[in-house]
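Can't attach files on this board, so I'm pasting raw text. These are the components:
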Amino acid sequence: MLTEMDIKTVVIGGGPVSSLIVLKPARQDEKEPLSLPIRIGSVEATAISMGVSPEGGARPMTHDLLKSVMESLGGHLRSVIINDVSGTTFYAQLDLVGADGHQVVVDCRPSDAIALAVRCGATLFAEQAVLDVAGMPDFRAIEDQEHDQEIKDFHEFVEGLSPDDFT
Amino acid sequence: MLTEMDIKTVVIGGGPVSSLIVLKPARQDEKEPLSLPIRIGSVEATAISMGVSPEGGARPMTHDLLKSVMESLGGHLRSVIINDVSGTTFYAQLDLVGADGHQVVVDCRPSDAIALAVRCGATLFAEQAVLDVAGMPDFRAIEDQEHDQEIKDFHEFVEGLSPDDFT
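---
Top answer:
Structure tokens for the assembled complex are below.
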């Protein structure tokens, strides 16, 4: 079973910080919001975000060329599917239609698949099995919890102070 | 007029050092050897050198996917042509054959073109006009000259020494 996904955020890491793309179901369950975080290379993270908001005047990048070559050969990207995960390694497939109208499926990395999808306006899907294994409670909910805990800790700290601490 | 080119060297830069690919005519004129140095991104330099000597077990990179998509759609890369230069910016074209046997030409960056060519075993060409503008005397010749000059300078330095300098 496939779930349609949206891009929630792209984090372009640097140095020791990994780059990350976080997907979420296009139709979120408000009670149990879900995130699908996928670690990707910083080059691919940049390629995805430049596909989302292209910089005018910049030279076409490799994924722009991938789109040009595909379209020049009469191909069309119908959708991309995050179809498997093993440990923290995700796998994806391009669902293409060739010039003769036949379906062509090509295996690839999720980062390449998403960088192409954003350029082609193609739909993103994730296999339910992938969401079952690698889906996480929504990050925002975790952040809110952490924020609440931080305020609680601070209040406890302040309440534990004696008047002597202020002198 | 097109000249068939070979890859002479790929320099993968880092920090302030640019990455570079140096092409040379496949049939060099021994009297006037020529180099065509093209500044490229370090990511593209890595993509080219991994295409020349693939690392076993590594996940397919974007140019591997470009090849897969092209071939899945019945396309074939005949050659790539470095067809123009403006300042230090070079332009290239992929000379593809589509599934129906028709020629398809796609504009791209030389780095993408070469990274794809090395994966497909396609021939590299440069327009004569590009070689006229951007071709340089062969680097090796320059290095040899510099080496000769260095030895000459050292000999002059030694000859200029007086016995007192050794005490």
